Amino acid sequence: MIARFHCYGSLGLALLLSGSLGAAVHAAAPELIHTPGYESPVHADPDDLLMIAGNGFDPTDQVVYLALDQVSAVRDRPAVVPRHNDALSGTVPIVQRGSPTYAITVRLPQSMQKGRAYRLWVVTRSNEWSVPLTLNDPRPQWVSPSVVYSTLDFAQLGRRLRVIGHNLTGDSSSPLQIRLSGPGTYLLESLAPQGAAALHGSVAEALLPARLTPGTYWVSVRRPGLAWADLPDQRLTVRPDPKELPSFSPADPRYGGCRPDTDADDSACFARVLAAAAQAGGGTVLVPPGAWNLSTAGLTGPAATDGLIVGLHVRLQGSGAAASRIVRHGLPGARRPDALFTLLGDNSVAAIGFADAVTFESPQQSRPVLQLGRSVESSPPDPATGSVSDIIITDNSFHHVGRAITDDAGHPLERLYLMRNDFGAYSESINLPGAPTRLAEPFAIDDAIVRFNRIVPGSYLDLTAHQGVIASGMGAAHHVDFSSNLVDGASAQGLQRPTDPKGFRAGLFWNLTSNVELLLIAENRILCSGDKDGDGEAIAFDDSANTRAFLGTVPVSAAGSNWVKVQGVPAAQQFGRDVPLKSYYRDHWLTILAGPGLGQTRRIIDYSIDPASSTVTFQVAPAWDIVPVPEVARIVVARQFWQVQVIGNDIEHRSPPCQKSNLTAPKGGVIVIWGPSADVTVADNRQRDTDGILFASVYQFATAAFPHDGNATFLQTALEIRGNLIEGEYDSSTDCSQSGIWSSFGATPNPGSPPPVVGFGIAISHNTVVHADARDGGGIDMPPSPVPGPPPGRWAFIENLLVFHNQLSDLSGAPPRAKCFTAQRGRIGIHLGGTYNVRDSVLYRNRCERVDIPLADEGQHTTRLCPAPAQRSATRGTDCECP
Fold it and tell me: Which end of the chain is least crowded, N or C, by CB within 10 Å?
C-alpha cells in the first residue's frame, strides 16, 4: 500500500496551493476534457471533491473559479489569480495529482455557494490559462414529449412539458425559465420542484400555453443571472390538432353485428371493422362494454403470426379496462410470435382489459397481445418514417396474458407512449429487446415515455435456466422517460395458480442491441425483484447483444481533431451473419483507454476502410478535447450506456413484503451496470435488503488459448454514484450475498493484450450504507475478480477514484460464512483491493460508525485527506480514512 496523507487545515491548504517552488516552469496551459456532456465535470457542492481530467498538468498549476453570473464579454475570466476566496471568485486547492498526470483532483472551498454556476480554469505559473470548465450550469438535454398538439392534451399528459438534463433546479422565488422559439416565442416558468428527480436537478416541468402555433421549436432554459442554454440536438414539434376520426364498431351489422358477453367468436367482426377503419384512412374502433371473445386460430397468411392488423391511423378505444374486455381463446400453437393485434403506426389502444383464456407452461407459448410492427423482417414498417411510430397505449389492463407488448422483428420504434396501464404477463409485460441479428437497420426506441404503469409478476419460472418473469426489457433508448411506475413483485394478481411463486427474476432491464442514451429512470418503486430466481436485478444495464468492431483494444496509428486511424479492419460478421461493413459501425462509440485524453468517448459518425493498408479511419463527433496520441492511445469500438440517469427509485426487498425465495442465490434488488458506460448518474435511490449498487470494470480478450473469455471491455468513465441509501442486504450471514457499493474489476490472463484502464473518474459520494457489504467485506468495495489479468497482475484497472462524504455504519461482528468466495477478513468500511490495481484514489470525510475495519487499502498512491490536528476532535475519530 502506498498512500498520501494530507491535512485540510489552513496551513495544509496554503502548502497545496503554493505548489513546488523548485519545479520547472512550463509555458503551455494544460489541456482539459471540457465539452459539456462528454466526461467533463457536471456539478459539485462546496467541500466536494472534483476530478479535472486532461493532460500537461504541472505541480505549480493553480485552479481558479469565477461565478458564471459574473462572466461577460468584457470579463470572461479574472485578470489575475485571485488572492482571496469568496462566493464570486477565488482559487481551488489541488489535493491530488495522478501518475501519469491525466487528471488532478481538487476540493471546492467552503466559500463557493451551493448550487451556483461557476467557471473553472487551470492556470500555469507563467499565467497561461486553460480552456474553461463549467460547473453547476443548467444543461438541458432533451424534452419529453417531443411532440405536442396545438391545443389538445397529447397522450393525456396534462399539457405538461418535461425538460431532462442536469442542474435544472429552480424554486418558487427563482423558477427555471423555459423558452420555446419557433413560429412563435413562448416563455414558461418551471413548476415548483417535486420528487427526487426534480430536486436533483434532472427534470424541470412546465405547463404549456393553452394554444401553441404549430411548427418546430428550439427549446432553451435559463436560471436567473445566466444566459440561455439550448437543447443541443432535439426540437419540439407542435402539431395541428388532429381531425376527428370516424367511428366504427364490431357491433355494427355492416361488420357482422357481434355482441359481447356471448359464447360466440367475435374475431371475424373485429377483422372486418379493423379493415374498414384502415380502408377509410383511419378511424376509431370502439370496443363497447362487455366481454369479447377473440382467436387467431383461423387466420392464414401473414395474419397467422401477426393476428388482427391495426392499420395506420387506427385507434382501439374501450370504455374502461374493467368494462371493455377482450379475452383470447385457442390453444397456443408453434407459430411465432402469434400476436393477437399488430400495430402498424399512428395507433392508440386505450381503456381495454385484455386476458388470455389459456394457462401457459413455457415462454415459447407466451404469445403477445400487442405487437409493434409486422413479425416478418422483410415487411417494412411505416414507409413514411422507416419505423413504427406514434403508438399510444394507455389505461389498459393486461392480466393473465403471455406477453403484453412486444416487437419480435426488432423494428425501430419512435414515439412510444405507455401510460397508466396495469400489466401482469406470464413472462414479460414490456418485451422490446430488439433483434440482434437484424443487422441492416439498427434497432431504436426513440422519444418514448413509460410512466404511471403498474407491473405485477406472472408465473414463468425455470430453475434450470435460472430464469423467470421480467417486468420490462428494452434493447435501446434515446430520449426515454421511464418514471413513476410500480413494479410490484409482492402481488399475486398476475399468477396463473395461487401456488405459483411471487416475485420477479428482474425488474427493469436494458441491453445493448443498440445504444442506450439519454435515458431517465426516475421515481419507480420496485418490490421483490429477486423472489423468482436468477440475478434478481431491480434495474439492470446489460452488455448482451452488444457488438464490437475489434477483438480487444487496438492502438491508434494517427489522429486529428475529430478522427483517428487504427490498424485493422472492423469485424465483418456479428452473430454469425455478414454486416453491411461500410455503415454498420456508425453510431457505435469510440473510447480512449490509454494515454492523454484517457476516458474520452465519442460517437462514430462515419468511417472509411482502406483494404490496401488494412486500416480504418473513424470520424467522430464532437471533436476531441484532447487529440489521442498515436502509438500511445488504445481504443475500443462498441455500443454503450451514455447519459443515463437513475434517480430517486425506491427498491424494496425486505421480508415482508418480499419472501426472499430466490433459489439461485441470495440475490435481489441490485442496480447493476454490466456493460460499458459513460456519464451515467445513479443518485438518491433507496434500497432495502438488496444487493446494492454494482458496476463491472472488466477486460475480456478471447484467443485460441482462452476461447471462452469472450470479447468485452467494460470501461466506466465519469460515473457518479451519489446520495443513495443502501440499508441492509439480502442475507448478511453468508458471503454469497453482496451489497453496498462495489465494482468487481479484472481481466482475463491473456499476455498478448495487457489490460487497459477500465474505470476512470468514478465518484462515490454522499451515500449512506448501513449493515451492507460486498464480496470482500466493504460497504464501499473495489474487490479484484478471481482472475486479475496476466502476470505480474499489477495492472492499473481503476484510476482516479473519488470517495467522499459517505456515511457507513453497522459493519461489525463476525465475518459471513465462507461459502461462495474467499473468506472475508472482516467487516470493512472502505476496501480498495487488488495488487496496486486501484490507483490515485482520493478519500475524504467518509464517516465510519460501528465499523470493525474502517479502511483496507491495497491501492497505489491513495490520497487520504485528514483533518488538521486542531480539528480532529470534531470528527471524534470517525473518518474512515484517517488513523
Answer: C
On whether the CB atoms of residues 389 and 360 are closer than 8 A, the answer is no
Q: What is the C-alpha to C-alpha distance for residues 217 and 234, in angstroms, rounded to an integer?
A: 9
Q: Which residues of 461-487 are buried (b: 16+ CB within 10 A; e: fewer)?
A: beeeebbbbbbbbbbbbbbbbbbbbbb
The cell numbers describing 169, all together, are: 433546479
pLDDT at 459: 95
Q: Residue 200: which H helix or E strand, with range?
A: helix 195-200
Contacts of 225-231 with CB under 8 Å at 24 or more apart are: 225/69, 226/68, 226/69, 226/117, 226/137, 226/138, 228/179, 229/137, 229/138, 229/139, 229/140, 230/140, 231/140, 231/141, 231/142, 231/143, 231/163
What does the pLDDT read at residue 664?
A: 87
Residue 42 near residue 48 (C-beta atoms within 8 A): no
CA trace torsion 144, 147, 153, 155 (10° rounding): -70
**Which residue positions in the chain have pLDDT lower than 50?**
9-25
Whether the Cβ atoms of residue 573 and residue 616 lie closer than 8 Å to each other: no
Spatial separation of the C-alpha atoms in residues 749 and 368, rounded to whole Å: 44
Backbone torsions φ then ψ of 469, nearest 5 degrees: -65, 140
pLDDT for 377: 54
Q: Going by DSSP bridges, is the β-strand pair 573-574/577-578 parallel, antiparallel, or unpaired?
A: antiparallel
pLDDT in tens, 789-818: 888 888 999 999 999 999 999 999 988 888
Within this chain, domains 2-135 and 139-239 share the same CATH topology: yes
In the beta sheet, which residues pair with residue 309? 342
How does 561-576 read in b/e, with b if 16+ C-beta sit within 10 Å?
eebbbbeebbbeebee
Per DSSP, the chain holds a count of helices (H) and strands (E) of 5, 79
Boundaries of every domain in the chain: 2-135, 139-239, 247-401, 554-638
**What per-residue confidence (pLDDT) applies to 601?**
97
Q: Cell for 348?
A: 392508440
Is pTM beyond 0.90? Reply is yes
Say what the pLDDT of residue 19 is: 35
Q: Where are the beta strands (DSSP E) in 136-289?
A: 139-144, 147-149, 160-166, 177-181, 185-189, 203-207, 215-222, 229-230, 236-239, 247-248, 283-287
Separation between Cα atoms, residue 452 and residue 463, nearest integer Å: 31
pLDDT tens digits, residue range 445-459?
Answer: 999 999 999 999 999
DSSP 786: E
Predicted local confidence at residue 20, as pLDDT:
35
Looking at the DSSP bridge assignments, the partners of residue 392 are 348, 417
**For domain 2-135, is the CATH number 3.90.330.10?**
no
What CATH number belongs to 554-638?
2.40.30
pLDDT of residue 873: 58
On average, the pLDDT of the chain sits at 91
Find out if CATH 2.60.40.10 is the number for domain 139-239: yes
| Cis peptide, bond prior to residue 580, ω within 30 of zero | no
Give the pLDDT score at 73: 55
Q: Contact 726/769 with Cβ under 8 angstroms?
A: yes
For 249-306, the three-class secondary structure string (H helix, E strand, C coil) is: CCCCHHHCCCCCCCCCCCHHHHHHHHHHHHHCCCEEEEECCEEEEECCCCCCCCHHHH
pLDDT at 79: 87
Within 10 Å of residue 600's Cβ, how many Cβ atoms?
28
Q: Tell me the per-residue pLDDT of 718-763, one tens digit each, with 9 for 90 and over.
A: 999 999 999 999 999 888 899 999 998 989 887 778 899 999 999 9
CA-CA distance, 1 to 602, in Å (whole number)?
Answer: 35
Residues 538, 734: Cα–Cα separation, whole Å: 21
Apex 145 CA angle, 142 and 147, nearest 5? 110
pLDDT of residue 193: 84
